[in-house]
Amino acid sequence: MKIARKHALIQEYEMFRMQKGETISEVQKRFFHIVNHLMSLGKNFEKEELNIKILKCLDRTWQRHITIKRSNLYDNNFIVWEAKEARIGN
C-alpha cells in the first residue's frame, strides 16, 4: 500500500497546477501537503526542483508579478511566496 500511495502522490505532484480562483496561499498549502507526504515516504527533492515546479504551476495572471533573481533560485526560501496575495485580472 505504501508504494501505491507514493506513486499516486508522485502523479499528483507531476500534474500539480494552480486551480481557477485559487489564491497563492491555497496553492502553497496544497503543494507543500503533497511534497511533505512524499518526503515522509522517502522521496527527496532538490530545492531548485521545487522552486521551478511551483513557478511553472502558477496561472498566467501571476507571471508578470514574479521576479526571479538567479541568486535567489538556490536560496532556502521559495521566492514565489514573495508575490503579493492580490489576484490580478486578465
Structural class: mainly alpha
Q: In terms of per-residue confidence, which ranges show pLDDT below 50 for 5 or more consecutive residues?
A: 69-74, 76-90
Residue share in β-strands: under 5%
Largest sheet: none
Q: What percentage of residues falls in helices of 4 or more residues?
A: 40-55%
What does the overall shape look like? elongated
Mean pLDDT: 78
Quantity of strands, as a count: 0
What's the helix count?
A: 3
Distance between the termini: 43 Å
Multimeric status of the protein:
single chain
Q: What's the SSE pattern?
A: HHH
| Rg for CA atoms | 14 Å
The total domain count is 1
Task: Walk me through what this model shows.
This protein has helices spanning about 1-15, 25-40, 45-55. With about 90 residues, it is mainly α. It has one domain.
